[in-house]
């Protein structure tokens, strides 16, 4: 299994960035303790997506922080990203693996136990379980899993679990204590007045659960 620190996983969202560049937000967030970054772009062209990915690799690679590309395996391969994150309606894991090879990280979104179990069986490297709590960041999601839902999925899977949805410094430790290996945040860092301070607060909140490495 690939050795990746998913403990504090930042998912970028341009609509929440308050006019700041992805590069500036990521540099600040990594300084605050972010351990993994996902570039998610739903509205831009392929060329712009490529340029954003290249910029982030130049920020992250010298710091040893992996870059995961949301949905677009072609972008991930083109820029040499560390991984790709796929949804339930995206390219199947077995096909993605044939194209990406064994070294690329493949993450899968799962909203149910069945999704999570199937993802592990198909060869995913980690599972993004969502939503843990209600969130306005993503509208097309199922009912919140809650802490109990994390425990149920943890009991049925062995690969890393990353919780996402409504996560902040006040509840991150509880998510890790419930069985997740990491917390993924969007607005709690991207929309913060000070992304570095927000990341530091999240990392401090994780430490009581002894799960943020």
From TrEMBL:
The keyword Metal-binding applies. SUPFAM superfamilies: Thiamin phosphate synthase. 4-amino-2-methyl-5-(diphosphooxymethyl)pyrimidine binds at residues 38-42, 70, 109, 138. Mg(2+) binds at residues 71, 90. Keywords: Magnesium, Metal-binding, Thiamine biosynthesis, Transferase. GO terms for cellular component: cytoplasm. It holds the Pfam family TMP-TENI. GO terms for biological process: thiamine biosynthetic process; thiamine diphosphate biosynthetic process. Its EC number is 2.5.1.3. It comes from the Bacteria. Its cofactor is Mg(2+). The keyword Transferase applies. It catalyses: 2-[(2R,5Z)-2-carboxy-4-methylthiazol-5(2H)-ylidene]ethyl phosphate + 4-amino-2-methyl-5-(diphosphooxymethyl)pyrimidine + 2 H(+) = thiamine phosphate + CO2 + diphosphate; 2-(2-carboxy-4-methylthiazol-5-yl)ethyl phosphate + 4-amino-2-methyl-5-(diphosphooxymethyl)pyrimidine + 2 H(+) = thiamine phosphate + CO2 + diphosphate; 4-methyl-5-(2-phosphooxyethyl)-thiazole + 4-amino-2-methyl-5-(diphosphooxymethyl)pyrimidine + H(+) = thiamine phosphate + diphosphate. GO terms for molecular function: magnesium ion binding; thiamine-phosphate diphosphorylase activity; triose-phosphate isomerase activity. 2-[(2R,5Z)-2-carboxy-4-methylthiazol-5(2H)-ylidene]ethyl phosphate binds at residues 135-137, 166, 186-187. Pathway: Cofactor biosynthesis; thiamine diphosphate biosynthesis; thiamine phosphate from 4-amino-2-methyl-5-diphosphomethylpyrimidine and 4-methyl-5-(2-phosphoethyl)-thiazole: step 1/1. Binds 1 Mg(2+) ion per subunit. Residues 8-189 form the Thiamine phosphate synthase/TenI domain. Condenses 4-methyl-5-(beta-hydroxyethyl)thiazole monophosphate (THZ-P) and 2-methyl-4-amino-5-hydroxymethyl pyrimidine pyrophosphate (HMP-PP) to form thiamine monophosphate (TMP). Belongs to the thiamine-phosphate synthase family. This is Thiamine-phosphate synthase. It comes from Desulfofustis glycolicus DSM 9705. The gene is thiE.
